[in-house]
Structures
1.
Amino acid sequence: MTEKAVVLYSGGLDSTTCMAIARSEGFDPFAISFAYGQRHAVELQKARKSAPRIGAVDHLVVDFDLRRVGGSALTADLEVPKEGVVEGAIPVTYVPARNTIFLSFALGWAEVLGAFDIFIGVNALDYSGYPDCRPEFIAAFEGMANLATRAGVEGSDRYRIHAPLIDMTKAQIIRRGLELGVDYGLTHSCYDPTPEGRACGRCDSCRLRLKGFAEAGVEDPIAYVARDANGTNRTAKR
């Protein structure tokens, strides 16, 4: 019988690749997304359209409002950096405790589904320096999951947090996704898109994405206001 897996799914490049990997490993993916008051809520539109196409058995969208907490350019009235971020510093686009919250919801749904595998598309190489994207965090959450759940206490099985992208460059992630048939034209990565959903091309997420496609030798299929992978703006395709 095919095993179930809960996959954290934002509609972005990494989470889409992560779900494709879960499928390739023989899991039935149950996608979970979050409407948390993020300024780039267009990602949810992409996620709702893309999840069934990528093979999600079910897609749960959890709605809560992290704007009440604030503390991030993605959830508060703060500017999204457009000139790069300071190396070694945690940028203002970090959302306090976001992956801890997301994984907790995923763990709860996994308990109900009888699933013991949770996939998350965090990356610790080509990333913005968020503390909840590191291997130490993933290992710590897995340990907590097996302390805080009925199945973990009763010993019927162990929860496993899979982070298959964690030691891959963005270019490697893109190549792997293409091998698995991922259509990156269905994904969204920008932190500060236009009202029409066009990527800005200058925020850190866009920069990392464009850098990855350039290093992979593949054209990024989505539309941008401007492309700034190497610090040079140019008009994007319409």
Note: The longest strand covers residues 27-35.
2.
Amino acid sequence: MAQAANLDRTHAGADNLLHRRLSIMVLMGGPSAERSVSLASGEAVAAALESRGHRVTRADVSPEDLSAFEQADVDLVFVALHGSFGEDGRLQHILEQRGLRYTGSGSQASRLGMDKIEAKRRFAQAGVPTPPFVVAEACRRDHVALEFPFPVIVKPADQGSSVDCSIVRQASDLASAVSHVVDRYGRCLIEPYICGPELTVGILAGQALPVCQIRSATAFYDYEAKYQDDRTEYLFDIDLPGELLQRVQRLSVTTFETLGCRDMSRVDWMIDAATCQPYCLEVNTIPGFTSHSVLPKAAARAGISFADLCEQIVRLAMQR
């Protein structure tokens, strides 16, 4: 609760901007593989903002259809588009060109957050531990040399929500997994599979929210486990050393700052069960706002309701 009060004080200077009802366009849907999740996130955000008295317009945009912006007379655009286009900096660049104020990270930080390869390089430079990795592209997908043992994770370099991620447990299966990802996305990231607890840290206004442990009922926390499987557990009473959890929170803020993020994000971690070494996997610049999403759960743990979370994100954007 003290953390919630602290965050409220952080945003007190923006209160005068919100004495009137705001006209807010909530972007949802979009063209990515995460469209259905985005629609759910956007609808939840829109309903929350309406409950606070704001005038809300719902809009579904894509690179081919930007008509919603043609006569957009709004105070703010709330971006709830996940995945490619909405989260990779392209949409943010369009909004900047049109002079529209919007929530979330800017175009550069969004691009870095979506590009897992470049983000991991930035993490390493900032002293944030991240798993070693190999990049496979079309020109060398049949000649991938690994410097770490199996099992490994094979995943697209610029997708979210574990779309097309897989665990490869033996060398004979690597080529087909790599080819599948490269054929669809052009390049893929291969890194060792870290066996241990999976943690995630929400960041709001540059501050770390309580650490959440994700315990999937399946072997891999994939798209279905994230958004459809009600058996997935989200734990805040975590059986790990307090010093480790505090370190993960501090490092999460470092990743947020390293990429130049703003407003909110979610930072994903794996903890090596044998050594308790944390490894940062990625930063999500537009985390989910669904009933299964971790950022709202972590905010609630800190005493911030879902409507308050959306309102605080609005305040942060209105300060700019």
Note: The chain has three domains: 2-103, 113-129+195-301, 134-192.
3.
Amino acid sequence: MDVATPARNLRPPVSLRTADYDYTLPDDLIARHPAEQRDASRMLVLLRDTQRIEHRRFAEFPAYLREGDLVVLNDTRVIPARAFSDDRKIELLFLEQIAAPAAEDRVTWKCLVKPGRKMRLGALVHVGGVAGVVRGIEPEGERIIEFLDAVDLEKHGEIPLPPYLARRPEPADSERYQTVFAREAGAVAAPTAGLHFTPEMLARMAHAFVTLHVGVGTFRSVLVDDLAAHRMHAERFSISPETATACNTARRLVAVGTTSARVLETLGRPFYATGGSTDIFIHPPYEPRAVGALLTNFHLPQSTLLMLVSAFAGREFVLRAYGEAIRGRYRFYSYGDCTLIV
């Protein structure tokens, strides 16, 4: 059993070195398919006040809620954003639809493309029989493509599974890579902590929804040695009047996923109905000001999401917990098990 320490006032010095947020994960612990049942995952609980770790099942999550808690979830819906050109030579990831600069019947998208050398300014591409022209190239390589008509992604696209799954989508992914409460289309990655919930589980707790459309930046590595030099990608979010009111009256906010946490921490109390984009980068020594507890999945080494979790529980405690999860053969990443920080 772990020895308790009064950690809240004895935190070790904060590190801003990217290399200090690293760990080694055996490849066979990557969950490449979902569990048979959504709520059948394991749950590693990190108790911050005592620095203890508990091994539980996700079905026990309600037992960690207090009177007056509000569980806040992200209701974004993943779109079938990955598509191929009609000649199969170009792979496109449709990131965000933007305003068309010309005729109203034209639709402009910001896309990631592979290979980029074939998609220079003025290059022509056809997707689902619709012609598109590269009108611009963003600093990080995204292409601004103007299509002559709407591309039917429901017919010609597929669910953009995370690259570390190393497989093409299967029929089951259309359902299982969506939360049961997904309703606002616009994400290219799922808010994976929400994948564990069933309608029956949600009915047992006070809950509310925010919307943050998860972008491809969630998978991007931190390429600088010093966290202070890293610039986060922006993601679109919104919060309704009903959710704002519920958050303001709750005793404690329990964020489901790093995406919900980023919305809540961007706004802070008092909450109000609004929308926009956030590029908040949460990492030590940041002290959360809105979120009191966090449910999340396991995250990639040296990722901004692992750094966010470290801001909630401390880098050393998080890495110790990850080490225990590896020894305990937990399943990692999008389709894997979860952690609860209280």
Note: The chain has two domains: 7-78+161-341, 84-156.
4.
Amino acid sequence: MAINVLHHGLATTVQDLGRPGYFHLGIPMGGAMDRYALRAANLLVGNDEGAAGLEAVFIGPKLEFETEALVAVTGADMPARVDGVEQPGWTAFKVKAGQVLSFDYLKSGARICIAISGGIDVPIALGSRSTYPIGALGGYKGRAIVIGDDLPVGNGFLENEGKAVPETLRRQSGTPAELRVLPGLYWDRLTDQAKQNFFADLWKVAPEADRMGYRFRGGRKLEFIDRKPSFGAGSDPSNIVDSCYPYGSIQVPGGTEPIILHRDAVSGGGYFMVGTVISADMDLIGQMQPHTPTRFVEVTMQEALSARRERADFLEALRQTFN
């Protein structure tokens, strides 16, 4: 079975849950920006929750199906249509052979996950089907899909038609968005006032927001404690001797505009990190549009671990709806 791409939408790529284990070689984990949404979409159509689907940003693709399949669209609110008839979100629906799946304008959020029964059956690269465009690795020919592509799909089941994720399990961010942050190794480089300002200020997502990272603007410039530059670090107070960057780390070049590193981010560099967004909140970032007002909220390690447990319980509740 294959799906013919009539229109590619915007930055539509094949994504699964990523390829952990290669970050030390400079290859990021990648995978869906909103991992929960991908898991939910796959469970709806009867796939393994880590199966490969499509991730589209702001504008959805237009796809013609060669054979009947079960489809689910989760994540952002971007209504799907089959031959022009609107379909419910977070719900499994059928697309028959010859029918066309398309999408209305985006209403909220930023990214949709499209799961198709059987999963997108592109070759596995380093343990994953996810697309890493910068490295031309994985996905469909190592790139975003384009008009004329034929996407291979595996054999799936059609029994879940009409199955839906309960409203209480459809996670949405608030306004302003709140991202919980654990201060990092370089926190002591800031003045006490700068530490207070970072969490007190209202920031906004900048237009430079993609799979590598999200930039934020609007808060006060960070002030650093005077220090003698370390050998090889550079003279700017925000420079450090090259260090590893964990996922979700917040680097602040020049102390002006925080950048949260996301799924396709580089593995290290020479910019100071103010802290790290906790794992429980990483999916929310992928659904934030440019200009979204955002506050950073300081948490302790214990609070971060508690949030991770709550997130695991939330995911388990989702799984239980399909048992």
Note: Residues 2-169 form one domain.
